[in-house]
Amino acid sequence: MGKILEINGPLVKLELPQTLIGEQVRVGRMGLVGEVIGRDGDTALAQLYEDTAGLRPGEAAEGLGWPLSVELGPGLLGAIFDGVQRPLHAVRAHSGDRIARGVSVPALSREARWRFVPEAQAGRTLAGGDVLGTVQETASIRHRILVPPLLRGELLELAPEGDYTVDETIGRVKLADGRIEKLALFHRWPVRTPRPFRERDHAVAPLITGQRILDTFYPLLKGGKAAIPGPFGAGKTMLQQQIARWCNAEIVVYVGCGERGNELTDVLEFMPQLTDPHTGRPLMERTLLVANTSNMPVVAREASVYVGITLAEYFRDQGYDVVMVADSTSRWAEALREVSGRLGQMPVEEGYPAYLGSRLAAFYERAGRVETLAGDHGSVTLIGAVSPPGGDFSEPVTSHTKEIIQTFWALSKELADARHYPAVDWLESFSGYVKSAAKWWTEEVDPQWERARAAALDLLAASEELQRIVNLVGVEALSSEQRWTLESASLLKEGLLQQAATDEIDSFASPQKQFALLAALLEIHRQGLKLVKRGVPARRLIELPLLAQARRWKSQHGSDDIEALKAKIAKIPQAFEPLLEEYVTESEGG
Amino acid sequence: MKHVEFRTAASAQGGLVVMDGVPGVAAGSRVQLRDHAGRLRSGLVIRSADDAVLVEVFEGTDELDLERTWVRFLDEPFRLPLSRDILGRVFNGAGLPRDGRPPIVSADRRDINGEPLNPAARAYPREFIQTGISAIDGMNSLTRGQKLPIFSGSGLPHNRVAAQIVRQARLLGEASAEFVVVFAAFGASHADARFFQESFEESGVLNKVVMFLNLADEPVIERLLTPRAALTAAEYLAFDLDYHVLVVMTDMTAYAEALREVAVLRGDVPARKGYPGYLYSDLAEIYERAGRIKNRRGSITMIPVLSMPSDDITHPIPDLTGYITEGQIVLGRELANQGVYPPVTVLPSLSRLMKDGIGKNFTREDHPHVASQLFASYARALEVRGLAAIIGAEELSDTDRRALDFAEAFERRFIGQGEDEDRSIHETLNLAWDLLSMLPPESLIRVTEEELAKYHRGAA
Questions:
Q1: What's the CATH code of the domain at A486?
Q2: Which of B121, B270, B387 lies nearest to residue A97, judging by beta carbons?
Q3: Touching check for B375 and chain A: CB below 8 Å?
Q4: Does the first or last residue of chain B, that is N or C, have fewer Cβ atoms within 10 Å of its Cβ?
Q5: Which of residues 97-116 of B touch A (CB under 8 A)?
Q6: A587: pLDDT confidence band, cut at 50, 70 and 90?
Q7: Cβ <8 Å between B269 and A470
Q8: What's residue B53's pLDDT?
Q9: Residues 549..588 of A with a Cβ closer than 8 Å to B: which?
């Protein structure tokens, strides 16, 4: 037992010999929890996850003997946890609408009983990560009960099928040294240590989010790393929520790190009403939330992303494709900065500590598609939001992140101001996964995908050039062909890239719909171009009602209505015929 | 310890006093100092160890000596006494009466720092508040429980806009405002404070207003308490007494500057522009106290006013605020110079909660599309205006000229309105259609064809 020597904001100096760095401590009469971040002689420096007001020098402190760990087992899905995995619904039942300090509630309910179906055979030698059995946790997710990663030994006995609480013993393993270890439906894992796997694997399949600007133009693979930087009001949260809603991952871990309370409430209230387009089940069944809102203590904010990624890895180890969305990594970096500032560490850029880059890189490295210890395949896709101060992408967090990730969805204030959503800037974004994604699109959707994508991007880039000229001298200075290019690009932006989250029909677009729409708009461009080349002025083409109609197609045809869309594509040439006749006859006649 | 006074100040400098040999002092507890002349000052323990306790003195350390200063540790955090009687009262920044009336006596005294609301206990704001201001109602709607700041600049009429919102805000279907108002001013001028006071008086709501005033010539450190005291009162009114509370705070920039001043004294490592790294967390502690709670009737809707230093929206204060609040109403100098009131620059303005509080069952079914169309058409019209400035309006196509006329009419008639003009949401939407009807229907692709047929004046 030790005692408090000094309190300075979230940092507390303790007289507590023999503690390990990283060890959890419980401090003071309120029983506040924190972790040791430094030792000096008999004193330990700890940062607390809760507000320290009211603590006094002289109050007791004790080391708990383990680092910050999470409980992994049935009961995680559909739950909302705080930054140190306290279950917020249970905390509310315990201490009311406000989060009282020192509340200690286990992450997984000790009362709930789960139907366990054994799979492993007694007498066999088991290794970490092997499947003991399963629990059907929700209608769509079967929770595989794993042997804790570092355990290895002979399974002496395993409980028969039946209902168990998470902490009941369901099996016993004899270790190599003869000790006997009990197994339960859950185990603990320290959050700052990546969970082991057999080997890293190639990411092969794209993550389908149903958002055209992402899937078609800047794809992300399952197991990939992406960042969404954007100034406030550019629609970062909205885009992340869209991804969490519609992506074809099996599990979604949504970490609200230093963000708004109402956003999490929105997710909590909205998700249960939505259906997963891939399984037809309520989306909440595959989602779990980690929330350290901006008004919750800053040290727990730093921990929250590690809690999230460990939960994600745990489902990956069961063979699932998991997406983790971290909103926002900037708040996490700021929490690092705040603590390092209090420790008096030398700041480098904008007050951030020198280890910012390496911490960020190590964190993103926990994403990936792997072969699990049990020989399955699972993946963690990591999508981090970045909130650059003043929207300046050259600031430290954005620039470090840009070096690490493969897919960069840059949000633009200008697009958002014009209410062009999602405000993903098609010139500044990039994806290093286009080649791999092309293979999938070619096989699953259409062999023309890569070519169509490139054609659309060319058109957008060309229009940007032309727009510059227009801004200087007006549209009259352009040739007919150039004006048609401009018009086609604008058609792409409005009819394809813009996709309203609130549009029930268009909020999610299947890959087939995405491609059909892209092909349709490119077809309009090509048909028009043909006419322009034969002397039809662009002005006349722009007046065609087809152009206004095509802009509405995305909202008229859902992902299950591709045939009607294709029928419209087939009729595109007809819309140009009157003009063709008029001009070609004219020129041939005169 | 409450009744013991210590005279062991070891050093005093820049608002901070270090006390020696006072063991067991709780962090964050309140302190009373009595100087050589017998004047009382108050302070807060910001660092505590057995051998040295660091105290922040709100009134500063001027004219303080070490030998004759007595310090009493009150052994509790800053608390605000609360009862129904706070309505109609005026307090200073630390919650003491400044209206010459007796202090509030109540056994219910709450820590002004509050406790973070459990996200699982929040109820999502969905009820549309009609402010009667078209630029807000039509395009950046406010909902009950939202925090929507006004980003402004020096000399712009943010106070008048805030006062108009307070006067006119109501739920649809309500005859008159059902709100009580908590008004907090920190670092505000006497003139500004008087403006609000008179405005409340004129609209006859003074007995439904609680004011917390820390004016520009009053202690800077007290500014750090003012919004917290005000929000503690607001929480009491909303979640204990079931009121719908509208909190108006001005000016967040003064608050952040006070925070920076104190951070420098404490020796905190600065992040951007000298503001401490915890500015974001600190602002969030304030803003996040807005909202609604499940199974409670009341709500806190927050309208902080913030003047952007040099009109720069990327300055840390508006920047960090924008990351926390649920949108922003941006006032612009250009419109103001053209005599448009309220000079709401709609493109950078935003209400994040709008999508869930408007449309069918809330306002009118066409509202979401109309708002989106107004944004798109006005953004396009501004591009044309930029072009016209270069090549001249004569060179523009007919479509572009119509866009120019639209922009002009939009600014004058839609954004612009009288300070006492209270437009219903139907008036606002009808006006929007009047203006959209200036544009060819085929250019309006954000509204549906049915809506065009129903509302567009030029449609067949």
A1: 1.10.1140.10
A2: B121
A3: yes
A4: C
A5: 113-116
A6: low
A7: no
A8: 94
A9: 551-552
pLDDT recorded at residue B59: 82
**Nearest-angstrom CA–CA distance, A89 and B230:** 29
> Which chain B residue shows the shortest CA-CA distance from A337?
B277
Q: What is the CATH number of the domain that holds A429?
A: 3.40.50.300
Please answer whether residues A376 and A320 qualify as being in contact, where contact means their C-beta atoms are separated by less than 8 angstroms. Answer: no
Q: Is A102 within the bounds of a domain?
A: no
Provide the shortest C-alpha distance from residue A137 to chain B (in Å): 21
| Residue B340 predicted with pLDDT over 60 | yes
Interface residue B379 vs chain A (CB under 8 A): yes
Q: How many domains does one find in chain A?
A: 4
What's the CA gap between A49 and A81, in Å, rounded?
14
Which residues constitute the domain of residue A475?
449-589
Chain A stretch 43-102, residues whose beta carbon is closer than 8 A to a beta carbon of chain B = 51-58, 80, 88-89, 91-92, 96-101
Of A261, A341, A501, the CB nearest to B268: A341
Query: A214 with A350, same domain?
Result: yes
Taking the domains of chain B in order of start, what are their residue ranges?
A: 5-76, 80-356, 367-455
3-state SS of chain B: helix, strand, coil percent to 5? 35, 25, 40
Please give the Cα distance from B404 to B91 (Å, whole number).
50
Average of pLDDT values for B146-160? 95
Chain B interface includes A392 (CB < 8 A): yes
Residue A248's closest CA among A211, A195, A199? A211
The interface residues of chain B toward chain A in range 51-90, judged by CB-CB distance below 8 A, are 77
Q: Is A504 on the interface with B (CB under 8 A)?
A: no
**Residues of A with Cβ-Cβ distance to B316 under 8 angstroms:** 389-390
d(CA B337, CA B156): 9
Does A475 lie in the same domain as A399? no
Residue A444 lies in a domain: no
Let me know whether A482 and A570 are in one domain: yes
Mean per-residue pLDDT over chain A, rounded: 93
| A350/B27 Cβ within 8 A | no
- A91 and B328 within 8 Å at the Cβ level: the answer is no
Q: Is residue A118 part of a domain?
A: yes
ipTM: 0.89
**DSSP assignment of B276-312:** BTTHHHHHHHHHTT-EEETT-S-EEEEEEEEEPGGG-
Q: Are residues A511 and A568 in the same domain?
A: yes
Say what the pLDDT of residue A233 is: 87
Chain A from 287 to 306: CB within 8 A of any B CB: 291, 293-298
A62 with A178, same domain?
Answer: no
Lookup: tokens for A428: 């500044």
Shared domain check, A302 and A209? yes
Instruction: Enumerate the β-bridge partners of residue A370.
Output: A200, A378
What is A255-273 written as a DSSP string? EEES--HHHHHHHHHHGGG
DSSP reduced 3-state for B79: strand
The verdict on A36 and A158 lying in the same domain is: no
Q: Looking at the partner chain, which of A51, A265, A294 has a beta carbon nearest the beta carbon of B324? A: A294
SS3 string, B102-136, reads CCCCCCCEEECCCCCECHHHEECCCCEEECCCHHH
**In this predicted model, which residue has the larger pLDDT, A275 or A375?**
A375
Quick check: A589 pLDDT over 50?
A: no
Cis peptide before B309 (omega within 30 of 0): no
Enumerate residues 5 to 34 of chain B having a beta carbon within 8 A of any beta carbon in chain A. Answer: 23-29
- Assign domain B80-356 one CATH number from 3.30.2320.80, 1.10.260.40, 3.40.50.300, 3.40.50.12240: 3.40.50.12240
Q: Report the range of poorest mean pLDDT among A326-340, B228-242, B244-258.
A: A326-340
A432: contact with B, CB 8 A cutoff:
no
CATH class of the domain whose range is B5-76: mainly beta
Last residue in a domain, options A433, A467, A501? A433
